[in-house]
Amino acid sequence: GENVEQHPSTLSVQEGDSAVIKCTYSDSASNYFPWYKQELGKGPQLIIDIRSNVGEKKDQRIAVTLNKTAKHFSLHITETQPEDSAVYFCAASRTGTASKLTFGTGTRLQVTL
Amino acid sequence: NAGVTQTPKFQVLKTGQSMTLQCAQDMNHNSMYWYRQDPGMGLRLIYYSASEGTTDKGEVPNGYNVSRLNKREFSLRLESAAPSQTSVYFCASSDRGGDNEQFFGPGTRLTVL
User: Which of A15, A48, B35, B66 has the most crowded CB, counting CB atoms within 10 A?
Assistant: First the structure.
């Protein structure tokens, strides 16, 4: 089955700096790669996703890049703010109605003032 | 529009006791999922239901059973709870399959003594 590795497990940045979280996956048939943000005491929430026919996707301060050849994808957050502090999870999935997500182990991002 | 709701929010069980975690969604989604979240291990899929009337095992199904009661409701049952099942449990739903945005409930924190 799919295996998703995520690094780093913790990341501390100063407000205004950029943060980068990296993931690798093992199943070459995976073609959907979402990123979820989990705030303390809540369930995860999708913040951005990318499909394999796209190399990069941006949404305001958040961007995701995908390298299918190397089987890795990354989340980039620019101009970080205190409200970006949370746990971030990457995930991978094949397509299809019976498909299921495999999550990475998470990155705890702390944005300090 | 409540999204995904889970009951209870907290539960303490003794080893060997049984209980059912309830999950309901009001988004008319076809697919529903149960995950457990443990420190340092991300979200691991227990069982999922790609559509009403179907259920399939995920990564960690041992010790659990599920019922897709109707399109809205998907319950998770622990027949004989063990300390290793101490975890936070999340239910999620998606329109169709794992390659679509999943919406998560607020979670159930379960402790087995």
Answer: B35
